[in-house]
Amino acid sequence: MKLSVLQQNGNTRRSNSFRGNGPFDSVVDGFKSPAALFWLVLHGLCCLISLVMGFRFSRLIIFLLFSTNNNTSPSVTNHIFTTTRPLLTSTPTNVAAEGLTSQTPPSTSTTQNPHTALNRTTPISTGSRVVVGRHGILIRPWPHPDPVEVMKAHRIMERVQREQRIQYGIKNPRPLIVITPTYVRTFQTLHLTGLMHSLMLAPYDLTWIVVEAGGITNETASLLAKTGLRTIHIGFDQRMPIAWEDRHRLEARMRLRALGVVREQKLDGIVVFADDSNMHSMELFDEIHSVKWIGAVSVGILAHSGNPDESSTQKQDDENSPLPVQGPACNSSGNLVGWHTFNSLPYAEKSAIYIGDSATVLPRKLEWAGFVLNSRLVWKEAEGLPDWVKDVDTLERDGGDLESPLSLLKDASVVEPLGSCGRKVLLWWLRVEARADSKFPPGWIIDSPLEITVPAKRTPWPDATPEFLSVEKVGGTQEHIEKHPTKTSRVSRSKHGRHKKKRESKIVDKQVSRRRSEEK
Amino acid sequence: MRNSRLVLIILLVYAFISRIGAEDVLEDDPVGRLKVYVYDLPSKYNEDFVQKDPRCLTHMFAAEIYMHQFLLTSPVRTLNPEEADWFYTPVYTTCDLTTGGHPMIYRSPRIMRSAISLISSNWPYWNRTEGADHFFLVPHDFGACFHYEEETAIERGILPLLQRATLVQTFGQRNHVCMMEGSIIIPPYAPPQRLQSHLVPPNTPRSIFVYYRGIFYDIGNDPQGGYYARGVRASLWENFKNNLLFDISYEHPRTYYEDLQRAVFCLCPLGWAPWSPRLVEALIFGCIPVIIADDIVLPFADVIPWEEIGVFVAEKDVLKLDTILTALPPAELMSKKQKLLANPSMKRAMIFSEPSQLGDAFHQILNGLARKLPHDKTIYLNSSQKLLNWTTGPVEDQLPAWW
Prior knowledge:
The complex is a heterodimer. Chain A is an alpha/beta fold. Chain A is built from 16 helices and 14 strands. Chain A starts with a helix and ends with a helix. Chain B is of the alpha/beta class. Chain B has two domains: 25-189 and 364-398, no CATH class; 192-351, 3-Layer(aba) Sandwich (Rossmann fold). Chain B contains 17 helices and ten strands. Chains A and B meet through strand 2 and helix 7 of A and helix 7, helix 9, helix 13 and helix 14 of B. Chain A: It holds the Pfam family Glyco_transf_43. Chain A: Residues 97-123, 305-327, 473-520 are annotated as: Disordered. Chain A: It is an enzyme of class 2 (transferase). Chain A: Keywords: Cell wall biogenesis/degradation, Glycoprotein, Glycosyltransferase, Golgi apparatus, Membrane, Signal-anchor, Transferase, Transmembrane, Transmembrane helix.
């Protein structure tokens, strides 16, 4: 419309000028030119705005001026400033974003939109404030998580999990007393870290009594300091012997010593005998809460031979027999009738004698680890103490066979079978140890440079200059590793060059062949 | 004096009993409170569809089939139509499936009209009230509007012949053409055995904050975006795909049900229609449903206190969803969780259980029908009154059924 007006003006001006300059005409001319100038300026302005906005601004003005619906104007004017094209098509009532940017995939040109908007302004009158049609997809300018909110969310989840534990977990959690005999050796960190993590995960009050053969050492102490658990670190004066038999016996005495501590300090809770090389499932800690006085769980025995040849022959024998399990045996009504013990006959000649032997390490008939006690059993005087329990002091004095906690009892039938009557295996026994004379860096920290250096397989490095040939430090090997990849990339690039440019192939061939000769 | 005291005591006792919460209404036994007569329609209206395509039995519209089977053996069924309070027409309008498994919805109005003309000509009970004491199950996207596209559904409106009947449908939205005032809103069908077979121990800690699996853009039908789900699902994706608290994706995991049991919040945004089976899944598996659908009417809203167990988010607030959810006071959240989990009757009300148990979705439907009794006397028309117009509506609907 404006264009036509402007054209008319232009025509009249042109026609005026052709008519010639009369005085009246000149006045009229002069009168008309500011108006024409005004329209020219306005037209220029509109063109500029259209250039900036990217659509025909003039049509929008028409739409605005002639739109009848009151509600459209404020929302649409808003939309102009936020350049949201599809929102023009969505209709009168409050919809999607006012003043928020919205992103749309590339849409059709907006010249069509005012018309379609006009069509759609007869809204699909459902009477509800929910509008059918195309809406903008609302995206906030910074769609990334806010750290404060993330922390709040985690706290909510913790709260939910706590409620879950209260509702479905153990109703009255009892404190646990974990007794572990250990000594400093190569595999100690491995075993103790595993046990440590299991204990840290258990959601119960824990007291960890660690009895160390050979006295308290900094090695063990530093490991225990990382736990954050309540630990009682006791030293046992004897050193750990080399033979397996003796080791088992010493461990039993160490456990009794720990029971003595329980007795002295009158610690209350459930006593668990966790050997450092065993693997415990979290369900074990839940299951033992149901013990009254003394309970037994099933232990999976992973008797493993250190010798690879032997294990293959063993597999042929053991194909049909399942994994041996030590634990309580029940009859159909759920009462304890006997024990599953480890059958050591197949291994009679092949069992390991010394720690670090390549033969199979055998467990005892019944491992201490498979039993849990109520700590009151070892107290000096406790109410409700059943009469079938022997006093711990008498055991030590007599020096009897301490193979399993059953020796604490006068009558073995009072043991409670746990883990659905022994059907669930809740922990696994595995004895993996290095040779007694194997060395390891103290604290597993390589402080000083390594004393032993082993040369790499392909030395000297091809291309390498002599200064890199002598390997002094660990850092030296690292530098070699960095050098190597660049070398390969160079080779590949030349290969590419060969494919691409045949003209230069001869020269490149020469280079490659030269490199190959160097390699050889 | 003594009499007045007695009256007072009786009043107090009555008040005490009546103060029992809505949850007990879920346990109401409809037997004895209503009688339903099931029309004996030829199998071409119901069983033939199922035999042709057994997928009908497991898709989310299967409620119409199982309701029929339930009513045939239920004690509320009566074989004497004279004493019936409600009349049920077993016509499976959403069971005529394409090869892809979607209902051929353009045929459904014709099937319905054919069924209604059959019952109106063979039995006098339709003409007696023009359907005001009849109920129909229409579990499709927009109920008796019989279309999956909202604009077309709104244009069509509810099938004119069903204007006086009670509609039992899954679609519910306030002030919407496709939901009548007295409709009973039901949950979509979810196979009960499949839900029960994926339970994990309840002490598995809930470690996912927000969980959602489904599509965000419907590339096939709405490539531009912004139309499907009114842009809400797309907005969820764009705003929260990088947020580690939001486990949202379009993948189809095999552990979907197990994952729901490890989540604290489950999103239930609208799709082409506002309702979704996700609500049922959230309730069964104990995660708090986050319902993003403006003006939605949820199943059995008169007996289930949805505001107490779910979180409602306005569609325009979707981009602030993380702020909203983390700002919820933990005490309120815990009470929602408690109400969700501690009340098994609400879970039972969402399931069309097989065999039917007291308090399941079938019984809730019957309870809803029973609460509408007794019928108003004005629904009974004399022979001269004809309120329904058999000739209005789109021309395609007027075509006779093709069998």
